[in-house]
């Protein structure tokens, strides 16, 4: 019983594989015929051309946006440097004022 099952399964596999290969070859041949059809080739060329145009536009827009972002970053950095300089100057004046006040107090206690 078991041997008959194994033989039957093997036979079915061989027949199925052969039928599957034939169907695969049919599908492959039909795909090749479709791909070589003039209308399909023309449509594919049109799609490639449009993709190139759209890609160029996208690259141009990305360049514009990137340039604007770089300009804005430069402006922000410049403002930050100016503000930092102002804050450092104010801190320096405050420290110098405290030193002067401490020195004055020290002189007064002598």
Automatic annotation (TrEMBL):
Record-given protein name: YtxH-like protein
Segments of this protein annotated with the region Disordered: 58-110
Organism annotation: Actinocorallia longicatena
Biased composition annotated in UniProt, kind: Basic and acidic residues: 75-84, 91-104
